Each structure stands twice: as C-alpha cells, then as structure tokens.
Amino acid sequence: MKTIGLRVYSNSKIYFSIIEHQTDGSLNYLNISHLNIPKSLNWPEALNFIRNTILDIILEYEVKNAIIRICEFGMTLNKNLIERSYIEGVLQETIASSNVEKFLVGQISEFTSLLGIPRENFKKYANAELIYPNIPATLDWNNFSLEERETILTANAAFNL
After folding, report:
1. What is the pLDDT of residue 111?
2. 100: exposed, middle or buried (C-beta count within 10 Å: 0-12, 13-18, 19+)?
3. pLDDT for residue 17
4. For residue 76, what is the domain's CATH number?
5. Quick one: pLDDT at residue 79?
6. Residues in the chain with pLDDT < 70?
7. What's the CA dihedral at 43, 83, 101, 67 to 10 degrees?
8. HEC string of the chain?
C-alpha cells in the first residue's frame, strides 16, 4: 500500500511524501519533494494547476491513503493564510475525487494517535529534536526541512487510517 502526506507551506509551495509499505513490513520512501505553484498563473489557474498536478501524482503512485496536515489556526488571518486555506480546500477536493480509499484532513492532534506518539513529540520530530524511528538508515532525518519531516510523519500516519 502507498500513502501520501501533504502540507501546504505557503501560497506557492506544497510539500509531499509518498511511502510504500512493502510485503516484508519495510517501508520504501518513494518521493519526498515539493510542488512549486507557478507565480505566473492567476489564482483560479493556480488552483487548477494544483488539482491536476496532485491528481497526477496520486494516480502515478497509486496512492491508497492520504493525510493533509492543515494549518493550526489561532494566528491572525492574512492574505497568505487565506490562500493557504484555499489550497488546502483544493487538496481535499482532489483527494475526495481521486482513487484514494481513506484520507484524513487535520491538525497535529488529529493524527498523532495514528502514529502512536504523544502530541508534543510531533513537534520534536518535526524540528529534528528527535529522530523518527521509521526512517531507513540511508536517509538522514536532519537533512530534511521541517515541512518534509512533517509530510513524512503524516504519510506514516496514513498507513493506520
């Protein structure tokens, strides 16, 4: 089974990780990357670009489970946060209309139980204060960005949906 973890960084970048759970129980990290949203597109075109590109990624990797990590509200709404919310909405619609079988859209507290970790440890893993144990020795946890680590964690949580 293959999973994807998604996190919108800003109104111009979406991070994602795709992981495959193999029959021997090991994990194969297929893609840890990001999608740059072209600044030359007007807003409706940008949202369409996001939808089509993410749908292509889901289809290419035959993703079955997905988690979108949405922003933790409580900060002042500004233009970038509103646009991030639009992007998160398009991601939700894209996943809902795809072949993904199970998905979750939520904040940290909504999927840390799927990882089997205390909520406060999520930030420690994301900030590389702790090394996440499901990472193969060939990957250096400290070399990933905060957003990449968050998508790796959400993709791992998606196995337990």
Report:
1. 87
2. buried
3. 98
4. 3.30.420.10
5. 65
6. 73-80
7. 140
8. CEEEEEEEEECCEEEEEEEEECCCCCEEEEEEEEEECCCCCCHHHHHHHHHHHHHHHHHHHCCCEEEEECCCCCCCCCHHHHHHHHHHHHHHHHHHCCCCCEEEEECHHHHHHHHCCCHHHHHHHHCCCCCCCCCCCCCCHHHCCHHHHHHHHHHHHHCCC
> From CA 92, how far away is CA 67, in angstroms rounded?
9
Query: pTM, whole model, 2 decimals?
Result: 0.92
pLDDT at position 121 is 94
Number of domains composing the chain:
1
CA angle centred on 133, ends 148 and 1, rounded to 5° = 70
Closest CA to 71 of 109, 123, 119, 107: 107
What is the spatial distance between Cα 123 and Cα 105, in angstroms, rounded to a whole number?
A: 18
Which residue range is the domain that position 14 belongs to? 2-158
